[in-house]
């Protein structure tokens, strides 16, 4: 359903993945409110700094929009934070249970046990009821981050306290959490600490204002039949924004009054530590047994080669490297081509981009190319849960209600690639209109359980909460399916350990600018 959104009313981090706009640095700050009046005044004073979703345009452009800022700022609240700001009780009770409970009380559903249990979280994330406000800053340079951080500090009042306790290097506790793209020299990359290219695509929904070419791979596939051609359509807005219809043609459950919820959404914030030494050691050990070697094994875990090329279309490392080299060159050509060659260069780039983001598993249902249990097939099955049957009018209808918009950046540096110690991982942020139906379902049923993929209790090889044995090995298992030509038998990865551990997080509500003004003025009226 085509939707016109008021982008002036929607916070910018909902629509924009800032990293793609040249903002490789971030800072996340938590606050506690001890005085409601001071808390509301703090919110009101911050509103002029809040970045909206209005498109950014160059000074020479004739299109409508704002010039790109040097720094962005966005704000979100926990349930306890809304309570501290004196949101009426009727409105508070209208929020979904999972949000009002908070992440720490949902750890059994999320699989945050063992090394990921709350007792092992950063001190600041163990405060639970004292975490009320999250402010995120994104910018091109750390100097711009620091400048905005100081501006926000000047807005603090007695009754609003910044929380310490984010763990940094050598266990030092910091007053904020920094994030940063991983750099290759002076150039920010899209890599994460295991070496995979990350953030390749993002959901595309009606009214988002993003480039229309993003619908390919980012939207939803349409079924080809006698009357229509196979193609792509945007996802429904209500999967990501409250107050708009979702994929079921219904309005998602939202708090009252509508002015409080409309154009807002829920955010899942998780600090995830990566055991880089464990991951590298496992690849070396199992890669020596696996006929394809450690790089192909890493690709089978993820469903993509570490350079981002999808396994389903690029079965060898050489073909993957050749494709990515062509893609990078075509992307560069699309910007630098002369006027007469611009259209052809753009077409070549879009054709290659489609191979990167718009693939599916229709010709690989058994998983002989991309394993059924690989990470990308679990978090976005792309219609493969139909197992080859055209059961739905919309290709991938089972998946379209589980999509999430990802934000966030890596944090820390890997000083010793053979060690699990240190301060490095990913700040993972998921945006969705329904935490339970979207993020929690994917985390519980697709990452930490394998029944939907006919894999019983096998977990996601990269993100699964594998348990430790007395020997120190993990209890995880993954089947790499046989080659259909019979050249390779199935390969069984055994004793997979937990590569990623939770270090903290919570559930937040990101209000619209209208709702922010109501909250700041104390004018939220559920009647």
Structure write-up:
With 527 residues, the protein is an alpha+beta fold. Helix content is 28%, strand content 18%. Strands 1, 4, 5, 6 and 9 form a 5-stranded antiparallel sheet that branches. Strands 14, 15, 16, 17 and 20 form a 5-stranded antiparallel sheet that branches. A hairpin with a 5-residue loop joins strand 7 (166-167) and strand 8 (173-174). The longest helix has 20 residues, at 317-336. The model is unreliable at 225-229 (pLDDT under 50).
Radius of gyration: 23 Å
Biggest β-sheet description? 5 strands, antiparallel
The percentage of residues in β strands lies in 15-25%
Average pLDDT metric: 92
Estimated helix fraction:
25-40%
- General shape: globular
**Cα-to-Cα separation, first versus last residue:** 30 Å
Low-confidence stretches: 225-229
Number of helices: 17
Structural class: alpha+beta
Q: Assembly state here?
A: single chain
Q: Helices, strands, pairings?
A:
Elements: H1 12-15, E1 25-33, H2 36-46, E2 56-57, E3 66-67, E4 71-77, H3 79-84, H4 89-93, H5 97-101, H6 107-110, E5 133-139, H7 142-154, E6 160-162, E7 166-167, E8 173-174, E9 177-180, E10 183-184, E11 187-188, H8 215-218, E12 220-222, E13 231-233, H9 258-261, E14 265-274, H10 276-289, H11 293-302, H12 317-336, H13 342-357, H14 375-379, H15 397-400, E15 405-407, E16 410-411, E17 425-432, H16 436-447, E18 476-480, E19 491-496, E20 500-510, H17 513-521
Helix pairs in contact: 2-17, 10-11, 12-13
């Amino acid at each position: 359903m085509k939707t016109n959104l008021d982008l002036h009313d929607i916070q910018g981090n909902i629509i924009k993945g800032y990293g793609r706009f040249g903002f490789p640095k971030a800072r996340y700050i938590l606050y506690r409110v001890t005085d409601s009046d001071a808390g509301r005044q703090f919110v009101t004073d911050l509103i002029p700094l809040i970045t909206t979703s209005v498109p950014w345009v160059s000074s020479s452009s004739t299109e409508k929009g704002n010039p790109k800022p040097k720094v962005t700022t966005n704000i979100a609240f926990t349930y306890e934070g809304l309570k501290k700001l004196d949101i009426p009780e009727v409105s508070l009770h209208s929020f979904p249970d999972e949000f009002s409970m908070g992440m720490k009380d949902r750890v059994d559903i999320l699989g945050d046990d063992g090394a990921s249990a709350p007792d092992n979280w950063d001190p600041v994330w163990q405060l639970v009821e004292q975490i009320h406000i999250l402010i995120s800053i994104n910018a091109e340079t750390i100097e711009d981050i620091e400048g905005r951080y100081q501006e926000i500090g000047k807005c603090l009042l007695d009754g609003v306290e910044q929380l310490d306790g984010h763990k940094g290097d050598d266990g030092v506790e910091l007053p904020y959490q920094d994030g940063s793209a991983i750099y290759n020299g002076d150039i920010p990359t899209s890599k994460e600490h295991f070496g995979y290219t990350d953030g390749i695509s993002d959901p595309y929904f009606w009214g988002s204002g993003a480039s229309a070419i993003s619908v390919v791979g980012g939207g939803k596939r349409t079924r080809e039949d006698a009357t229509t051609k196979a193609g792509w359509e945007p996802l429904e807005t209500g999967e990501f924004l409250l107050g708009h219809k979702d994929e079921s043609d219904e309005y998602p459950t939202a708090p009252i009054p509508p002015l409080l919820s409309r154009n807002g959404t829920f955010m899942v914030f998780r600090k995830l530590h990566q055991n880089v030494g464990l991951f590298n050691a496992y690849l070396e050990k199992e890669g020596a047994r696996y006929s394809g070697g450690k790089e192909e094994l890493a690709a089978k875990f993820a469903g993509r080669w570490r350079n981002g090329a999808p396994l389903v279309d690029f079965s060898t490392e050489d073909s993957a490297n050749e494709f990515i080299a062509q893609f990078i060159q075509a992307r560069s050509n699309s910007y630098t081509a002369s006027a007469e060659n611009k259209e052809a260069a753009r077409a070549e780039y879009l054709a290659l981009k489609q191979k990167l983001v718009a693939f599916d598993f229709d010709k690989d249902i058994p998983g002989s190319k991309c394993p059924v249990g690989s990470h990308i097939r679990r978090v976005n099955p792309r219609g493969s849960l139909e197992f080859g049957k055209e059961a739905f009018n919309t290709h991938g209808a089972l998946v379209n209600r589980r999509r999430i918009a990802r934000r966030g950046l890596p944090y820390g540096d890997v000083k010793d690639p053979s060690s699990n110690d240190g301060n490095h991982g990913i700040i993972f942020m998921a945006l969705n209109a329904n935490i339970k139906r979207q993020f929690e379902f994917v985390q519980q049923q697709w990452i930490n359980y394998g029944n939907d993929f006919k894999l019983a209790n096998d977990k996601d090889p990269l993100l699964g909460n594998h348990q430790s044995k007395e020997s120190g090995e993990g209890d995880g298992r993954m089947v790499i399916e046989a080659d259909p030509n019979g050249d390779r038998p199935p390969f069984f990865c055994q004793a997979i350990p937990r590569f990623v551990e939770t270090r903290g997080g919570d559930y937040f509500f990101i209000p619209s600018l209208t709702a922010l003004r109501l909250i700041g003025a104390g004018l939220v009226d559920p009647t």
